[in-house]
Amino acid sequence: MGRFGYELISVMFVLQLVFLVGSHTLTGSIAFLNLTNDGACSIVFGIVSAIILLLLALPPSFAEVAILGYVDFTSIILAIGITVIATGVQRNEMQMASDWSAWPAPDAGFVDAFIAVTNIVFAYSFAICQFSFMDEMHTPKDFVKSIWLLGIIEIIIYTLTGALIYSFVGQDVKSPALLSAGPLLSKIAFGIALPVIFISGSINGTVAGRYIHGRVYRDSVTRYINTVKGWTSWIALITVLTLVAWVLAEAIPFFEDLLAISSSLFISGFTFYFPAMMWFMLIRQGSPFSKENLVWTVLNVVCFIIGIVILVGGTYASVEDIVSAFSRPFLAAFV
């Protein structure tokens, strides 16, 4: 798509990363509220979460925070492990079947269905930062291997976690799912999950900052952030990005809706219709209707259609649900 496409995807890339930082800001606020029994205003905890994300995003090199990745992974595995075990034990103690179903709830409408779909799309969109990581890999040719490894591990963990917790909890499963572990164990799970909430969130801020900083100072030594000017501009940039993410988290303080609108506007492209377009325009060799390309043509057409449907339907559903969520407290006040 030429220069227009370059700028469009750049804006979408940065906005998606900022939305991810915002989702982690909101998750951190939910975690602190849960740990303190709603001991303070959610805005206060949102500010605290944003400050932590800001500080962790300040190291400009991924090598400097690589060790935190191991802490990050251990944190999420322990947190979801506690949640899965706790919900399973609670279901066993209740000695009654869960009300989970493989089919949508009978009263689920268009908005509910698309919010659920966009949340699933959000969960499985795992590779948006990989190009930035490749830039600092010791052996860049291992990039494809890292994508396969990350994808396989994440799909297995996310699928097992979602399926097990839903089968144990049923229709009353909460979002985030850690809230479903019960009052005490959810506190423990959120306490253990704090590293992954803030480390993963801050990495998105670092990636967005690196991309913008690298473009602004493309032909200057300032891009390496090893001068006074470099550090000053870097800190200012990360501060602005984190501030915007915090505003988004406060403007859309509903976890599912924040994920849904991010998924609809941006992930639908990065996961579905952009890869399909890339295959047709950059990778495909020969006619799309040739025998060797026919299967790939069908698959990429399907991916493109799915992406457009999520973009349009998901955005509409997200906006409708956000408007409805904001109107409920005001309506209740007049009843």
UniProtKB/TrEMBL annotation:
Top-level taxon: Eukaryota
Membrane topology value: Multi-pass membrane protein
Annotated Gene Ontology cellular component terms: membrane
Domain Amino acid transporter transmembrane, chain residue ranges per copy: 1-319
One annotated GO molecular function: L-amino acid transmembrane transporter activity
Localization terms from the record: Membrane
Entry similarity comment: Belongs to the amino acid/polyamine transporter 2 family.
Listed name of the protein: Amino acid transporter transmembrane domain-containing protein
Originating species: Xylaria bambusicola
Record lineage: Eukaryota, Fungi, Dikarya, Ascomycota, Pezizomycotina
